[in-house]
Each structure stands twice: as structure tokens, then as C-alpha cells.
Amino acid sequence: MTTDKRSKYGGPSQSPVWWIGVAAVSLGLFLLIVIFGLVIHNASAIGHHTILQVGLATCQKLVHNLTTDKDALRDERDQIKINASRMTNEMQALQSNYITLNASRNALQQQVTKLNQSKTGTLCHLGWKMFNNKCYYASEKGVTKNWNNSRKDCQQRRADLVIITTKDELDFVTKIYDRTWIGLSDIQREGKWKWVDGSDLEGNGFWQTGEPNNSGDENCVEISRRNGDWNDAQCKVEIPWICEA
Ligand code: MMA
Ligand code: CA
User: Fold this and answer.
1) 129-244, superfamily in CATH?
2) Nearest Cα to 160, choosing from 114, 186, 197, 189?
3) 115 alpha carbon to ligand 1 midpoint, in Å?
4) Is 233 in a helix, a strand, or coil?
5) Ligand 1 geometric centre to CA of 192 (Å)
6) Please, what are the averages of pLDDT over each run of 10 residues along the chain (245 residues)?
7) In this structure, what DSSP letter does residue 136 have?
8) Do 233 and 184 touch, CB atoms closer than 8 A?
9) What is the 3-state secondary structure (H, E, C) of 166-225?
10) Distance CA 230, CA 79 (A)
């Protein structure tokens, strides 16, 4: 008796063993694919996890750094506030100092003005006379000098021969001496009357009638015995003199 598997199961297309084999292989393949997929998926998940961990660590570090920076900035801000308040106080103190100093400066300025006034008002050297805040020295009685030596004497006294600019001043001088040298001459140029400080004679002056006449080369000016007005006289004449400082 022969056994025909084909006939028993009705040929290859109808064999359950073959189908089971195919199914088993397919299942195996399917499982392989699934496992492979899971492995891949896991691997990529692990990869993602690592990236996320790194990212998290970076973020944590960033947060830490930012927190540190924020703290540092807060400290700096607090310090600036303290400084600003201290500077405001200092500025107020300086302003108040300035006001005080300004006041004392003004007070000192007033004192200086007063001292200057009292100096010109009272302080002429001993033996000198004061008139309108200026000091005058009259040569000793009985002593006479020519114009040049009179002037030298005045200069040694840190003064010069008197310059007369007003009738008041002329009257003051003539009350001291009715004859005296004054600081006017035309020594440099005939007819050009100059005061000892280099200034020109302004206006008409206080000449006696008929003077200046340059009678016999007269280049120096005296207050004359005649009427207290001016006369040009020879510079070599020796008479008293008056200095002005
Ligand atoms: C004097 C002398 C002159 C003056 C005349 C005026 C004689 O000379 O003082 O300077 O001009 O008198 O008469
Ligand atoms: Ca004269």
C-alpha cells in the first residue's frame, strides 16, 4: 500500500503543514521586525533621552548663571543706590559750605574796603599832611633846593613833586608855602608843559598874568610869592618844595 501525501492533503496548495510553516515564518519575520523596530525605537528614545538630559543640564547651568548674574546686578544696584544717597548728602554739605564761604568772603571783602578807606583816610607818614586822601610832604623850613634836587628828595621819599590838578589842591599847597617848586616843567621841549608823572598839563593851568614868559630860559614851575599862582622860573633857583605820594 502506497501513501500519497499529496492525495491525502489534496496537493501543495491545500497542505496545512506548509501553511503553518509559512505562518510561522511570517510570524517570525513579523516578530523580528517588531523587535528590530522596538530596538531602533528604544535606541532612538535613549538617544532622545540623552539629548534631553544634556539640554536640561545646559538649561540648569544657564538658569544658575542667570541667577548669579541677577544677584550680582541686584548687589550692584544696591551699591549704586547707597553711593547716590551718599553723594546727595555730600552735595548738600558742599552747597551749605559754599553759602557759608560766600558769606564770609563778602564779610572779608567789606572789611578790606573799610581798611583801605581808613588807610587812605588816616595813614600818611609821620610829618606828612593829608588832603583828599593823598599825602603831602613839605620841605623843612629854611631848607631850599633847585628843581632837580627837590625832585630827587621827593623820589627818595617814595614820592614826587606835587601835581596840582584843582584849585582846591593849589589852595592847600599855597597855605603850606607861598613859594615852592611844583612837579611841572618844559625841560624836555620848550613850551610843552609836562607833569613829573609824564602827563601833559591839561587846560590853562593856574599861571600868573604874563606867565609863562621863559624869561632867561625858565623851564621849571614855581608857585610864586606874588599871588600863589604859577610862574616859570630858572630850574637852578633854590627854594622850598612840596612832594606828593
Ligand atoms: C622875575 C622872574 C620871572 C618872572 C618875572 C615877572 C624878573 O624875573 O620871577 O620868572 O617871569 O619876574 O616879572
Ligand atoms: Ca617867568
Assistant:
1) Mannose-Binding Protein A, subunit A (3.10.100.10)
2) 197
3) 47
4) strand
5) 19
6) 46 66 84 85 84 93 96 97 98 98 96 75 85 95 98 98 97 96 98 98 96 97 88 98 98
7) E
8) no
9) CHHHHHHHHHHCCCEEEEEECCCCCCCCEECCCCECCCCCCECCCCCCCCCCCCEEEECC
10) 85
Nearest Cα neighbor of 171 from 141, 124, 208, 131 is 131
Question: In Å, what is the CA distance from 165 to each residue of 53, 171, 201, 204?
Answer: 108, 11, 9, 11
Look at ligand 1, atom 9, and give the residue with the nearest C-alpha: 233
Q: Of all atoms in ligand 1, which is nearest to the CA of residue 211?
A: 11
Place of cell 584843582: 166
Q: Which residues line ligand 1 (CB under 6 A)?
A: 211, 213, 215, 218, 231-233
- DSSP tag of 12: G
Cα(226) to ligand 1 centroid in Å equals 10
